[in-house]
Each structure stands twice: as structure tokens, then as C-alpha cells.
Amino acid sequence: xxxxxxxxxxxxxxxxxxxxxxxxxxxxxxxxxxxxxxxxxxxxxxxxxxxxxxxxxxxxxxxxxxxxxxxxxxxxxxxxxxxxxxxxxxxxxxxxxxxxxxxxxxxxxxxxxxxxxxxxxxxxxxxxxxxxxxxxxxxxxxxxxxxxxxxxxxxxxxxxxxxxxxxxxxxxxxxxxxxxxxxxxxxxxxxxxxxxxxxxxxxxxxxxxxxxxxxxxxxxxxxxxxxxxxxxxxxxxxxxxx
Length: 242
What we know:
- The protein contains eight helices and ten strands.
- The chain is an alpha/beta fold.
- Strands 3-10-9-8-7-6-5-4 form an eight-stranded parallel β-sheet. Strands 1-2 form a two-stranded antiparallel ribbon.
């Protein structure tokens, strides 16, 4: 354990059965500040600020400049974050070839790796590799992608990430009409089939939209500007948790 840093929260606890998805309470509200909105010149301080503010996970958006029209950071950044917190590092690979770079993000210290269903890879094989590495695995879909596309994989994931903006840039407006029906469908499918994946939303999440996302079934809230831009981050985390 990192000296002075609290261990993983109860929200992250779970047990793995038969190398399948982690059995977790998917109704627990989880707040995951996005480091995309942090001040990277003092990443250690920014990580500790989120940890001390009561965050449950830290979300790391990896952009390759090809799958999305922006470039963020790579495995070295994840490795730089790891020593500063024991919170779950929720690594989101917005990459055309996540399978090619996967091992590097495993070694960097990610706890969960989420890949896109739209990317150029064998989705089932990539999820299997994440699982074999001992990590939790997630699957993401963009606003324009139908929920039907991810259905074949829902019994092998720990988390479904429904992008609530077009990925690539922070500060975009929440796309309620395009994305909330998919969140609701993901919750209904999970209940109907007895599955246990978390439903995560990312993009335009703030104190107003978090309530909308939660009412449709999301329980993991990724927020960048609304948390890192807040005067009192702990109060902002608490407000989102409520």
C-alpha cells in the first residue's frame, strides 16, 4: 500500500468466479474523476487531490490520434500515476489497435482496461487477454453505435462504458437523447440475463446530468471538468454521489 493512501473502496470489492466477470454491486454509485482534465504538470498532486476528495476510481482516457481526432497520453503516464494512489486505475483505450498496445498498459499498472467495440481488433480475443492478465475488462461504445453491437460480449465483461459524447475532446455537451436509451437497455439486459457488469458514462457529466444518467441505470460516473475544475473537489464528489 502507498504510504498515507487509503485502499480500494468497498465499491471496488468483488470476487471472480470461474475466471468470469467480477461479481460486484452494480447499484453502488462510483465517482471516477478523469485525469484528462487534471493539471499534468503536477500529476502526483492532482491524483492525491482526487483520492483525498473521496473519489472511488481514477479514469484515464488514452487517445491515439487515429481512432479519435486527438492525442492524450500513453502507458508511461499510467505508470507515473500508479505510485500516487491505490484507487482503481480505470484505463480507457480509445485506440484503433488496442490489442497491439494492451500488454504495455497492463504492465503500467492499470486495474481495468476498457476497449472499444468499434476498434480494429478481435473484441472477444482482446477481452480474453485482459482477463488472462488478471485485470477487469470493459467494453465501450460510441454514441452512434447501436446497443445490439455489444450484446454478444456482455456476459464476459465487468463494465460497459456508454460514451455520452463523441470521444476525443473534453468539455462537450451531454448527448441525452442519443445515449440514455442505451444505458436503459444495458440495465434491462443485465437484469434479464442475471449479469453483473457496471454501467459507466463518460462525457458531459456534472451535478445535473449525473442524475439523468443514474435514473436510466448508470452507476459509474466519469467526470473531468466538473470535478477537477471545482473550487471544492470533495464537495463536488459528494454532490455527484448523492
